[in-house]
Write a structure and sequence with these properties.
By secondary structure, the chain is mainly α. It has five helices and no strands.
Length: 151
């Protein structure tokens, strides 16, 4: 199994990487700028926490089964800039950099505080998700976008 943001050490490394970002960081792939990416990651946490309702995506039935979810979340390479995310994950418009970053950092800690919760919001592609799956997916999602900006 992959690393999870529910692990304090993993989360601390992510927080340090977020701190290295600046609003003018240059992307290495994809379409978002750093400001949009910060808000996108925050919105993904809001989806997981059930604060933003996400509509299910039309996907093959197998994508909703745990072994396939685990394969996609933990093993398969993620495409760089070729997949358009769900509109719900782009709800928040960038505003003031320091405030947006502080919001993201706070949301990450609040997300982690729910590690033991038994009920999580469904994922638009994967459907029902356990806490451990959300924790690993979130770590991988953050890593993907932080690498997008070289941190």
């Amino acid at each position: 199994m992959g690393e999870s943001v529910f692990d304090d050490g993993v989360r601390e490394r992510i927080q340090r990487r977020i701190a290295q970002l600046g609003p003018d960081a240059r992307r290495q792939f994809g379409r978002m700028d750093a400001r949009q990416m910060i808000c996108h990651l925050a919105d993904q946490l809001r989806v997981a926490l059930g604060e933003i309702a996400a509509q299910p995506m039309p996907v093959p039935w197998m994508m909703r089964h745990t072994p396939v979810k685990q394969l996609v979340i933990d093993v398969m390479p993620w495409p760089k800039g070729r997949i358009q995310g769900r509109p719900e994950a782009f709800t928040t418009a960038p505003a003031e950099w320091d405030r947006d970053v502080a919001t993201l950092r706070d949301l990450l800690e609040r997300f982690a505080s729910h590690a033991g919760d038994r009920r999580w919001a469904p994922h638009p592609m994967f459907g029902d998700m356990t806490g451990p799956l959300w924790g690993r997916l979130t770590r991988r999602h953050f890593d993907h976008h932080l690498k997008q900006f070289g941190v």
